[in-house]
Amino acid sequence: MRDRGITRVARALPRMSWAPKNLYNLFQRTVHKKNNKYREITFDTGRTLFQERWASKAVVRAYHGDYINEKIFKQWYLPDYLPDVRPRRKVLGDDNVSLQEFAKRRQKEKEQEQEEKSKGLAPIGSLMFAEVERRLDVLIFRCCFAHSVYEARRLVVHGNVLLNGKRHYNANTRLAPGDMFSVKPSAMRLLRPQKTEGESDNVIDHPDAPAGLTPFNLPFYASPWLFVPAYLEVSFPTCSAVYVRHPTARPQYSEIPTPYDADGEVIRNAWEWYMRHRPRKRTETQWSRMPDDRLRRQMEELRLGRNSLRLATSGV
């Protein structure tokens, strides 16, 4: 199995999983400061810059798409650059400055600029994984429909997921804003009756509840993972969700969930590593082998539609 042994305590690499061992690994890496696993990514030792970048890349990739081949990740999921969030000075000409001052907008802009400076710049380092967050299997896990991203991938491959009303089997598909996906309720482990006595210990019986209700069985130690990012609109009664927009960042907040500081040394060193070890160009043959991207497909259809409309109008 692809996900066998991924939560080993000896390695202590946090993954996209609700497993209790994974929570303990997360504790070792981020909270337990006296642990050697935590010291590996604090960079207070005499290691070289190459070793620090390599360690950062290893722990970051273990959480963000560890099942994606490294070559494929660097070629298709790594952005060319991160957005520039540095403040830009506005150059106004003619009498715009006096008009702005008369309308008291200049004072408001200065107050907003001072507030932004006090908060600091947006932590854009985690946006290097924005393409990974668009994957269908990752979004299913973010919606809390599956215990792990590996289980979410199996749900898609086994035909238990609908994308825009049609059965979809490709877990590598990257969604476009506005796409809706739904999971078959009978395939979700959360909505199945417990089979073993150990699992039933986590179930609270309600004798007064009416018969015929759908069971809801939450696994142990799952509460730290029960959150939904801001770029998803989830409907739990229908087991469906809508990918509203791409993830973004603002001062002191990043919408991409990550176990590490969104603007810390680990994310920065990982980005520096990939900037030095990434493919420089893509040929036409490589573009044809790109994983399914609905946003790129929509842009291509829009471009072809504009070209055909231009040709039709030029012929008239």
Automatic annotation (TrEMBL):
Keywords: Ribonucleoprotein, Ribosomal protein, RNA-binding, rRNA-binding. The keyword Cell membrane does not apply. SUPFAM superfamilies: Alpha-L RNA-binding motif (SSF55174). Residues 134-195 form the RNA-binding S4 domain. GO terms for molecular function: rRNA binding; structural constituent of ribosome. GO terms for biological process: ribosomal small subunit biogenesis. Pfam families: S4. InterPro entries: Ribosomal_uS4, Ribosomal_uS4_CS, S4_RNA-bd, S4_RNA-bd_sf. Gene3D superfamilies: RNA-binding S4 domain. GO terms for cellular component: mitochondrial small ribosomal subunit. It comes from the Eukaryota. Belongs to the universal ribosomal protein uS4 family. This is RNA-binding S4 domain-containing protein.
